[in-house]
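> @MW can you paste both from yesterday?
MW: sure, first one:
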Amino acid sequence: MKQKLEENDLETIYIKDEISKCEGIEELKERIFPMIRTQQEQWTEKINQIITESGLTKSKFAEVCGVSRVSVNKWCKGAIPKNRETFLRIGMVAGYDLERMNQLLRRYGQYPALYSKSLEDCVCIFVLERKYGLETLEKYNYILDKIKANIVRDNDEEQEDLATELFDAKLSYVKNEDDLEKFIAENSMMFAMAYHRFYAYVKMHIMANYQEFGGSVFELAEGQEWSSSLRQCVSAIRQKKWYPTRNKIISLGLHLSMDHEQIDEMLELAHMEPLCAKNIFESVIMFILDDASLNDLLDTESEEYDPDDLCRYARKILEDLDLPEVEAFISELPEMDEDVW
């Protein structure tokens, strides 16, 4: 397994390096795309493998997951589940441990890994480590519903923000359901502060590069007339209620004229892997960011700088490609000015 992982890492590094050498989108399509499988192709193979290894029929797998047989049939033909909760259900029914669940979330769902400072994820980590078998999902729902019904948050209580590693270690000492309920009650404010480092990073970037908006993501979104979808996302960030999704983070990075490294840092703070060269859509994003950097579209100190330039350029590139999975992503980018492009 270790050898396989090393070979996979080397392949990813090679593709990333080749992307940086491409001088145009046609060269990217010709040289890079043939080396990459689409997300749908990877998911089709994965879900069929999961069902086969589970030993369940598709009907039984659907029943245990709490979805319809039609949904499972669609998954097996390449339809990717539309929310993170569904991936959690699939992983629990598959009997995955923590490592395999995180791989499922990150690689196939494009979602954050399990995060102990999120209430739902905390309960999920607990049940995965207890190995309840086919009863894992039922146990997860039972414990989570019970805790949500009983938890009381004291908003005036100050609580030390523990490092995630230390918080993980404390959770690992929880032995049973009663202890878990007590642990969550004692750390209720910790769950309320989930992703605060992510929020702080976004605010810091705005304060450094968009001083006229005073560090407010909301005012920037309104001032630049971002899409209603992205403004809703920003509103949730403002209220610290957002559970980040990968494409929204990438979209936010483009709207903030972030470079490749800065978007990777945002993804890391949201407990996700960096931009992946082996994902067709993200390989295009990497090309866009590299090319934009070479053409000074990311120079926020330039007198000619326009906050929408990177988004318009990204839209121009993406609209010329046949990537149906990013239609919603493109709709968030501002319309192109034909006089400029």
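MW: second:
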Amino acid sequence: MNIPTETDVLVVGAGPVGMALTASLADKGVPVVLIDKQAAGDNTSRAAVVHARTLEVLTELDVTEKMIARGIIVAQATVRERDRVLLHVGFDDLPTDYPYTLLIPQDSTEQILVERLEATGTRVTRPCELTSLVQDPDGVTATTAAGEVIRARYVVGADGMHSLVREQAGIAFEGDTYAQSFVLADAVLGGDVPDAEIRLYFSPEGVTVIAPLPGGRHRIVATVDDAPPQPDHVHVQHLLSTRGPQRNPATVEKIVWSSRFRVHHRLAERYRAGRIFLAGDAAHVHSPAGGQGMNTGLQDGLNLAAKLAAVIRDGADDGVLDAYETERRPVAENVVAFTDKMTRVATVGSAPLRGVRNTVLRALDWIPAVHQKMAMNLSELGIDPQRMAKLKPM
């Protein structure tokens, strides 16, 4: 592998966050190297929700319209208990050029970002596994498993929840793990299933999300006590039969892909340690309720790229980089808290408490300001104080 021995920025991890950050830096004329320990990119659909704020920031890379063309536009979400709708959340009144949520499989998003990255003349160096980082006042020395040494002014860890960059930087990853596991499946469904809506089903056994995907498929995300390694037709059908619609039950016609995973709610103690930075899942992980994980990470990446370019290319003071944590960590803190609260409310086990929860949600459903605030939080447009100030009072 012909890896440059010196660069201004070394990015570790070639998921969507790492690729977007790298493409943005390359566009700005900043020398950057992107490495990933995997031999190839992920070809599964994992993160499938792209919210309005993310579509806005991705216009910088000129990929937003390409993503929209390959996804499904969804303007509404509902919270339900079986056939009963408890709360509506509409995105069509959001103060943005993208008043909706986009459903697009992660492998499609990654393919678009790979093409965009390559258009800058930059490629992912893989497989290339980082083994150590050593900082000094002038830069960072990175060593790979193959013995290559890369000298960089700055390093960005976009290498996921088990980030070696975070570990090498000595940054704590504070939080906990949910007792339940999560089922993730893409399936062809029949019966009462949404074509232009995201449905969040509450039940004592767990929360279940059903959302449309391109190609006539649907995404199912569900919390279970102990998921099988690869959830099959029978398992997914049981989830839909016991938690989903009853009058016209959803039926599984075909499982296209499935997986299981454990979910943590954790936040990095800090986003910067000298010349080392964290972005995406390396900095924050949380429940998939709300579909905000990849969105928050992509916004991290482009925010950090702008600040690194200001320092490296334009000669701004290094203190500019401190604003990255100041601006982005509170956003992740809010997302972690919001999704944790949503997950716990969804899985209330006591029948009396479920009754109270449902009554409260149905009462809130009559208040337009509640719909607005929920939509602003989910879309992450709520991080903009000016836009929030224009909302109707509660």
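> thanks! The chain is about 35% helix and 30% strand.
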